[in-house]
Structure formats: C-alpha cells, structure tokens
Amino acid sequence: MRTYLDCIPCFFNQALRAGRIATNDENKLKNLLDEIGLMLRHIPLENTPPETGMLIYEKVREITGEIDPYKKIKRESTEKALTLYSSLKNEVEKSNDSLLTAIRIAIAGNVIDFGVSMDFDIEKEINEVLKKDFAIFDYYKFREYLDNTDEILYIGDNAGESVFDRILIEEMKKPVIYVVREIPVINDVTYEDALQAGIDKVASILSSGTSAPGIVLRTCSAEFKRVYKNSKFVISKGQGNYEGLSDEKHPIFFLLKAKCWVIANDIGVNKGDIVLKGINV
Fold first, then answer.
1. Nearest of 45, 19, 22, 44 to residue 33 by alpha carbon
2. How far, in Å, CA of 155 to CA of 149, rounded?
3. What is the pTM of this model?
4. Quick check: is 1 in a domain?
5. Virtual CA dihedral for 244, 247, 248, 254, nearest 10 degrees?
6. Rounded to whole angstroms, how far apart are CA atoms 215 and 33?
7. What is the CATH number of the domain that holds 108?
8. Strand, coil or helix: 264
9. pLDDT tens digits, 236-257
10. DSSP β-bridge partners for residue 137
C-alpha cells in the first residue's frame, strides 16, 4: 500500500505519542517533530507507510535515547490478555465453528494497537467481534489452504494481541512459524513479548529482521525472506503488515480490524470493519 497524504499527520501523531512516553523534555520533543518534518519532505508517496514508520521510530530512539518506550505498556497489555486466555479458549470450545471463532478472537486482539490509539476496551471489542459480520470473508478459501498445508507462516502484529494469536494457532493444529519484529517499534511483538504470551509453547518464533512497524521485505533478513518465499500459507495480522504486503504476488490471508479510514478505503471496506481477506489465493 502506498502512502496517502492523510498518513502524514498520523506520522507526526505517532512520533509525538511515542516521544511523550519516552521523555518529558519539551525541547527533545520539539526537535523530534522538527526532524521528522524535514525527513518527510523527501519521502515519496510511493513508499509504504511501514517504510516511513521505520525511519520515524529510528528518529524517536535517536533523539529520546529510549530504545523501547512501550516496554512497560506491552508487558501490561500481555498480562491483561493472559487473564482472558482461559475464558477465550472456552468460547472456542463451546462454539459451533471453533476455527471461525478462533479467527474472530485473533482479529479482536488487533485492537491492541498503540500506533493508532491508547484508548480501547478489549473485553468490549471481543464481544463485538464475536457477533460482527465480516466485510470481507474469505473463510472457505482459508480453510482450504489450511487443510492442504504442512506448515503456516504467521506474521504477528502487536504485543498482547499475540495471546489471541496463540488461541488461533492452537486451533489450526498445524506447525506454525510465528514472525516477530527484530527490535522494538511501537507496541509490535518482539521475541521477548512472544515468549511472555506463550507463543513458544505452540509455534517456533522467527524474527523478520526488520525494525519497520510492518513487513518491508527489502529490509528483512535473508532467513525470513527464504521462509516467506517457500511458504504456501501466510497469515498476516494487522494494519502495518497489510500496508507492507498488500501489493505482494504471494498467497496471503490478512486478518485485521480496519481502524484507520485510509486503510479501510484501500481495502474497500468501512472503518471499524473486520476483514479476512485472501490475495493471490
């Protein structure tokens, strides 16, 4: 997905949000916004938003001196998600279609996105998503790919959300490679966050090799690119990964909630819609 003009104020908002978590120094924050303004002048709209996000969060780390400003928030959101794990497993087990319910729960977890907002109610979100109609529903194609695959490449999105991913991984009952970010960026899931969520109990964990808030293939490690190229069934969680992979010529299933109207418009749905969208399938 290309960058739209409406993405530009969002870049500033994200930088200021992360900057304020990292420091109270107004001079540093002013410098951060000045530097990002200068940087954005030279970034083409043809870039994907995660490519720009990678540069912005590098600047946040450089100016504030804080490598992982969301570390405490990520840990707390994972702890909160873990308290819901048993009840969510019960929802899956008692449902008429356990796989579909697990997919819904995984999508509900996508609301834990501090790049978009710090304000959400996860229990309310779960209740809504369990009942909500899908705007795009490529479920039967998803099941077909699942039935015919020996291994799943599952690209994670946010810390805390990974607990909800774990429920879907357990329900799919196939070997899974779970992809995390190389270094901290926003509240995206890293290796440490995935361990806290218990992902290591249900999948092997692989770093993408990139610090972008979404998959930017040219910045990923050779190992990830090899695994990705050879994978016949890719699940991509969240908006950032959609932004980075939506133009790929590879079979991918996107699971997300459209929390941003720009992304919703790019997908062809309304803001707030839930999506299970397959491309090249």
1. 19
2. 16
3. 0.94
4. no
5. 70
6. 25
7. 3.40.50.10880
8. helix
9. 999 999 999 999 999 999 999 9
10. 276
